[in-house]
């Protein structure tokens, strides 16, 4: 059976200005394992799909997950500083 791929999976080796390409599935028949003395590096191949709106990586992730600042983030005036 195929490995399930999360809907927002992407290859993080892209620039933030590159077009957003979603990972559709892995291609295990195309994978290669390079055995070395200490490690076992792998070359994985994936089927990718373009989004309809041709958005770049940074804008897609920002729209999907926001700016990364949550409600638990401290405010600028949360203390710890001088002043009266």
Strand content: 15-25%
Distance from first to last alpha carbon: 65 Å
For the largest sheet, list the strands in their spatial order.
1-4
Number of strands: 4
For the largest beta-sheet, the strand count, sense and barrel status come to: 2 strands, antiparallel
Uncertain spans: 76-84
Mean pLDDT: 80
What sort of overall outline do the alpha carbons produce when their principal axes are compared?
Answer: elongated
Helix content, binned percent: 10-25%
Q: Whole-number radius of gyration?
A: 20 Å
So how many helices? Answer: 1
Structural class: alpha+beta
Q: How do the helices and strands follow one another from N- to C-terminus? A: EEEEH
Give a structural overview.
This protein has 1 helix and 4 strands. By secondary structure, the chain is α+β, with helices and mostly antiparallel strands. The strands form 2 sheets. Strands 1-4 form a two-stranded antiparallel sheet. Strands 2-3 form a two-stranded antiparallel ribbon. Residues 76-84 have low confidence and may be disordered.
List keywords for this structure.
4 strands; disordered C terminus; 1 helix; two-stranded antiparallel sheet; single chain; 84 residues; alpha+beta; two-stranded antiparallel ribbon
């Amino acid at each position: 059976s195929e490995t399930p791929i999360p809907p927002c999976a992407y290859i993080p080796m892209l620039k933030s200005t590159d077009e957003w390409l979603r990972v559709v599935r892995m291609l295990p028949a195309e994978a290669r394992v390079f055995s070395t003395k200490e490690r076992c590096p792998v070359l994985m191949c994936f089927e990718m799909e373009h989004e309809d709106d041709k958005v770049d990586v940074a804008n897609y992730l920002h729209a999907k997950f926001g700016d990364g600042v949550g409600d638990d983030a401290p405010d600028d005036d949360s203390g710890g500083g001088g002043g009266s």
